[in-house]
């Protein structure tokens, strides 16, 4: 590969060196300050300009085919410079809205595609074709640009002009901004634009000298950014700023001594002028030992008659990692408010829990220990669904997912929770999606134990059901005997002496119905089971009923023990015996014996038709003229209260058989 010399190489390399130095200074600044769009744009501007200058210098010095490659590298770098300028203009004019990722990303992506098209032109030739020719003793590129290149250049000029316009509008519309500084910026970018136009219209030495102009442009921009010339505002006196601050300010030098503090700091910390020059840890014992790049926060309590709670935010100064500045704020009111809220939460009858997006408990209020039995520490870090009863777990998980997907959805859920003792309690929870709340960033769940309330509601529901049944029975079943009594009373008044006997029978029927109705309504679903001898209960029930000539057969061992509520079991047996006698007559035989899972009561009467066996336990169902229709309903309710099953079938002799299942006989276990 042959080389040639030209005077243009030296200024190009000087410009490259200057741009590299400026770029490295930006990198150094980034290590000491946080990255900002302004610094980032200047960094890219300088490095891309240096790359362009080096590529142009190599292109001039080279005489072979690689001139085309270096020309493409320089042209692609030129595209990067233009888009870096646009980002700089947006950042310097404080247009953060346009620097947000959704808006700037498509612009930068377009710039990247265009730069890639320039870099790869030697492969596809879409933008230009070039040949190496000799002019005035130098080998130079004779470049023939295509229409696509013309369109690309028009777009790049538009981007450059847009940056200029943004800065100019900013300078004319914002108070305190120096138009002179804006003018220097516009002039700084206009210079390389002018040299580039001269190159493309064929004026000049035949080499693009724009990278040389970029050295001056970058120097101008950096100077204006990092001096007061950019904002042009008149600095306020120190006393007008620091002395009027509500926050305290403490400056600590590299030697660890207090070098400055404002009146607010003296007042908040109860200090005197003698604090200046002293070691900061002597003045503020809580001052952190070491402060890195990140800010450190410490809380301080000052006792000077009234207790005050202060917060000190300590940061390193930008000019030295060893110097520090501390901003002091009074948090006494906030601390008192937090203590009040903390006491309310701790003493609340409600449990307050915060969950992350996975349902993991990240905070549990102290009240959870009183409600659940688990401490806050034990619950935090666990999955909330594990505390929900298994039968409700999937439903609650589905509701949680719905809250995640729809932040406006705030359901009030009722479900069962397993406490530390393994008992199930009914809880009602209000669930709110506060993931976007800056001070919460979680799913908030406020819960209360409603077990007793739910039990009371269920008891009221049962009572209402019984009252409805009572009203239905009174309005329906008592009407017939009352009508009979009314008719025959009228007949008796007219002299029919036999009618009085019918009235008496109607009254007797009403009396029996009232007894059955009261028994049915008063019986509930609760029992007090105990291990009792079965045969004595059967005998007591049999003796209570007017059995006339009926026969009882107890086909079980006399020592049989059953687990049941004695009073409720005897009343159920009385109703079964009465039912057998009413339908089977005075000579009926009633048998009690063991079944597969319990016991049976059977008779040798006419039995129950198959189509009626499923309905005989309904209240009001009867086939007897004198029946109330409640006897077997009472039997079913007694069985259900014990957790038994009862079915009506046919006995071996064709009579009725009532079979009880799921019955416990401790004597046989």
From TrEMBL:
Keyword Signal applies: no
Protein name: histidine kinase
PANTHER family in alphabetical order: HISTIDINE KINASE 1 (PTHR43711:SF1), TWO-COMPONENT HISTIDINE KINASE (PTHR43711)
Domain Histidine kinase: 473-660
Domain PAC: from-to ranges: 411-462
The protein's Enzyme Commission number: 2.7.13.3
Coiled coil: none
MF terms in GO: phosphorelay sensor kinase activity
Record-linked Pfam families: HATPase_c, HisKA, HisKA_7TM, PAS_4, PAS_8
Transmembrane segments: 6-30, 39-58, 70-92, 104-127, 147-170, 182-201, 207-226
Enzyme class at the top of the EC tree: transferase
Calcium among keywords: no
Gene3D superfamilies in UniProt: 1.10.287.130, Histidine kinase-like ATPase, C-terminal domain (3.30.565.10), PAS domain (3.30.450.20)
């Amino acid at each position: 590969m042959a080389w040639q010399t030209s005077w243009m190489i030296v200024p190009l390399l000087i410009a490259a060196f200057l741009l590299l130095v400026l770029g490295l200074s930006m990198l150094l600044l980034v290590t000491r300050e946080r990255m900002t769009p302004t610094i980032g744009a200047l960094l890219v501007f300088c490095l891309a300009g240096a790359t362009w200058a080096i590529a142009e210098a190599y292109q001039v010095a080279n005489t072979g085919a690689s001139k085309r490659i270096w020309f493409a590298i320089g042209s692609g770098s030129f595209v990067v410079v233009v888009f870096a300028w646009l980002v700089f203009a947006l950042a310097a004019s404080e247009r953060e809205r346009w620097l947000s990722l959704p808006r700037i990303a498509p612009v930068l992506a377009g710039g990247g595609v265009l730069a890639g098209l320039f870099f790869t032109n030697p492969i596809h030739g879409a933008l230009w074709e070039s040949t190496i020719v000799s002019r005035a003793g130098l080998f130079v590129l004779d470049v023939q640009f295509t229409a696509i290149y013309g369109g690309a250049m028009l777009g790049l000029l538009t981007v450059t002009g847009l940056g200029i316009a943004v800065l100019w509008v900013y300078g004319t519309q914002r108070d305190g901004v120096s138009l002179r500084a804006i003018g220097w910026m516009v002039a700084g970018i206009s210079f390389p634009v002018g040299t580039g136009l001269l190159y493309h219209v064929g004026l000049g030495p035949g080499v693009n000298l724009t990278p040389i102009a970029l050295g001056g442009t970058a120097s101008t921009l950096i100077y204006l950014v990092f001096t007061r010339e950019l904002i042009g505002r008149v600095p306020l006196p120190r006393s007008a700023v620091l002395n009027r601050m509500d926050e305290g300010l403490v400056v600590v030098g590299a030697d660890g001594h207090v070098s400055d503090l404002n009146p607010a700091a003296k007042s908040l910390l109860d200090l005197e002028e003698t604090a200046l020059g002293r070691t900061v840890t002597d003045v503020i014992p809580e001052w952190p030992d070491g402060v890195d790049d990140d800010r450190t926060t410490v809380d301080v309590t000052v006792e000077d008659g009234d207790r005050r709670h202060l917060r000190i935010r300590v940061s390193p100064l930008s000019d030295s990692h060893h110097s520090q500045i501390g901003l002091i704020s009074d948090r006494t009111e906030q601390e008192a408010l937090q203590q009040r809220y903390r006491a309310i939460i701790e003493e609340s009858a409600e449990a307050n829990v915060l969950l992350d997006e996975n349902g993991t408990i990240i905070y549990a209020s102290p009240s959870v220990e009183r409600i659940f039995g688990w401490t806050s520490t034990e619950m935090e870090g666990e999955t909330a669904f594990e505390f929900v009863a298994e039968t409700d777990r999937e439903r609650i998980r589905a509701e949680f997912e719905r809250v995640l997907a729809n932040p406006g959805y705030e359901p009030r859920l009722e479900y069962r929770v397993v406490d530390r003792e393994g008992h199930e309690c009914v809880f009602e929870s209000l669930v709110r999606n506060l993931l976007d709340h800056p001070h919460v960033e979680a799913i908030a769940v406020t819960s209360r134990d409603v077990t007793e309330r739910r039990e009371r509601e269920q008891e009221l529901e049962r009572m209402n059901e019984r009252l409805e049944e009572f009203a239905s029975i009174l309005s329906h079943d008592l009407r017939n005997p009352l009508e009979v009594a009314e008719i025959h009373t009228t007949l008796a008044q007219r002299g029919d002496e036999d009618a009085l006997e019918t009235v008496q029978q109607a009254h007797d029927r009403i009396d029996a119905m009232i007894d059955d109705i009261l028994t049915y309504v008063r019986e509930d679903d609760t029992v007090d089971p105990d291990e009792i001898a079965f045969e004595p209960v059967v005998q007591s029930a049999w003796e209570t009923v007017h059995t006339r000539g009926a026969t009882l057969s107890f086909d079980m061992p006399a020592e049989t023990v059953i687990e049941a509520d004695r009073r409720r079991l005897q009343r159920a047996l009385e109703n079964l015996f009465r039912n057998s006698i009413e339908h089977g007559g005075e000579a009926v035989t009633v048998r009690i014996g063991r079944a597969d899972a319990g016991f049976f009561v059977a008779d040798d009467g006419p039995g129950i038709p198959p189509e009626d066996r499923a309905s005989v336990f309904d209240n009001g169902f009867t086939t007897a003229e004198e029946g109330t229709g409640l006897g077997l309903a009472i039997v079913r309710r007694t069985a259900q209260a014990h957790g038994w099953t009862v079915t009506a079938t046919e006995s071996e002799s064709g009579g009725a058989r009532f079979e009880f299942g799921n019955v416990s006989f401790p004597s046989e276990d």
